[in-house]
Design goal:
With about 350 residues, the chain is mostly helical. It contains ten helices and no strands.
């Protein structure tokens, strides 16, 4: 997906867009003020348009109020966006720490400390490559880096209020750090799933280790699903921050691109979870089937009551995925896609199909 994105999109997005600062009151949470569109450009501090002498004092007061409202509004938007992504980053670090510790603990249970060190070093290198390579979606550069850099020139961040440094570059470095932490912990989770995918042999093929593997698989699935959901929410927070800084007409157009980027993260994560958990669940299921094969319930040699009791004990042996738990886990994995524009498009298609066939 990243390869196709890099091959198809860059030439079309390597353009300079005339970003315009957001209007006071564009956000529904902010009461509309008297500032007009022109007061939001970098020339917002220019002298107001001349008015009749009798209205000069009132015009001067209104212009001052508009400038103050614009200053508070712009600073508030920037601060809200930065704090929003900071909060998302905190949750990314928390879930990454939980996944990392869990993954390495599973690896240690089989390969001891040499295995733990090898996994940590190898995936640290892979994470560093993914975080610093040119795998950045070109659309993100247009929505985040370029827009935030342009927003540094919005009023009142010109002149004496200019922010030191390039906000777009700072945001990009923060995303790179989050990417490194995320991929490092994902490597630990993949290593744990590798361990859980190893088929049981000899004395390992009994009910106690299989129950332990089932517990670990459920924990891994819960952590992986939570990680994916938090990752998508962090991506959405990153997209919402710069889009709040420009006029709603421009933001509406770039919102399509931002939604596509969020959908891409959700789709990649969902595909990754399915690919990672498939072998581990398949190996566990085959071991359960083998255990039950070597200790079958002989229905022909047992009375009906004893046969039913034996069947019930087999079902209640703790080696069955509960249907409701499976459905809940699947919905947790697919949550990012269920919250994406793909579902809205699917609803529209189904509605049109229903009307056509009715």
């Amino acid at each position: 997906m990243s390869y196709v994105d890099q091959r198809l999109v860059p030439d079309q997005l390597a353009i300079a867009l005339p970003y315009v600062s957001a209007n006071v009151g564009d956000d529904a949470t902010m009461p509309a003020a008297n500032a007009n569109n022109e007061s939001h450009s970098s020339q917002a501090s220019a002298a107001p348009v001349a008015t009749p002498a009798s209205n000069a004092p009132a015009a001067k007061v209104n212009a001052q109020q508009d400038t103050q409202a614009l200053s508070f509004w712009t600073v508030g938007l920037q601060y809200r966006g930065r704090i929003g992504y900071a909060v998302a980053t905190v949750f990314v670090f928390l879930i990454s720490a939980a996944v990392f510790i869990f993954g390495l603990s599973v690896v240690k249970s089989r390969y001891e400390w040499p295995g733990v060190i090898a996994v940590a070093v190898v995936f640290a290198g892979i994470a560093e490559y993914c975080a610093t390579s040119n795998l950045i979606p070109p659309g993100r550069i247009l929505v985040v880096e370029k827009l935030l850099k342009a927003a540094d020139g919005f009023f009142p961040y010109v002149g004496s209020y200019k922010i030191p440094g390039d906000t777009g570059s700072l945001a990009s470095s923060m995303v790179a750090l989050n990417t490194f932490i995320s991929f490092w912990s994902i490597g630990a989770l993949l290593s744990a799933l590798f361990v859980l995918s190893i088929r049981a042999r000899g004395n390992e093929l009994n009910i106690v280790p299989l129950r332990a593997r089932l517990t670990l698989l459920r924990i891994a699935l819960g952590l992986g699903s939570t990680f994916l959901v938090i990752g998508v929410l962090a991506q959405k927070s990153l997209m919402d921050w710069p889009l709040s800084l420009i006029v709603k007409e421009q933001a509406a157009g770039l919102r399509l691109l931002a939604d596509a980027l969020t959908l891409q993260v959700g789709a990649q994560g969902t595909i990754g979870l399915i690919a990672a958990f498939g072998p581990a669940i398949a190996a566990w299921s085959l071991d359960v089937a083998e255990l039950r094969r070597i200790a079958p319930v002989n229905a022909a040699e047992q009375p009906a009551a004893e046969n039913q009791s034996a069947l019930k004990s087999q079902v209640d042996d703790g080696l069955v995925f509960a249907p409701f738990a499976t459905i809940a886990s699947l919905l947790a994995v697919l949550a990012p896609l269920l919250a994406s524009p793909f579902v809205d498009a699917l609803k529209s298609i189904l509605s049109a199909f229903a009307k056509a066939t009715s």
